[in-house]
Design brief:
92 residues; rod-shaped; 78% helix; 3 helices; single chain; mainly alpha
Length: 92
């Protein structure tokens, strides 16, 4: 039984540097996954901001249509109202 325990202790002593190598490889994997998660989150955030800007632009344009001057074949925009709506929707 003593030789068995001595053999296990000998293996542990021989593999002492392997733990550091495995830890380094594991850290590389963890940091790579963390970077991918952060980049994905930023892509989603940018997409949401672009979608919000498109919605605000469409709302500003629709609200600046001059209904009285427009006809089915021609749409007229009130430029002053369009500028005012743009400034209102894009504040902040």
């Amino acid at each position: 039984m003593g030789r068995f325990i001595e053999g296990i202790i000998g293996r542990i002593n021989n593999e002492r540097g392997a733990i550091a190598a495995m830890t380094a490889m594991l850290m590389l994997v963890v940091l790579t996954i963390a970077g991918l998660v952060i980049d994905s989150g930023l892509l989603v955030y940018d997409q949401l901001r672009l979608d919000e800007a498109a919605n605000k632009s469409a709302t500003a344009i629709v609200q600046s249509v001059d209904v009285n001057a427009s006809s089915p074949s021609r749409i007229v925009f009130d430029e002053a109202l369009l500028l005012e709506n743009s400034e209102y929707f894009f504040k902040g």
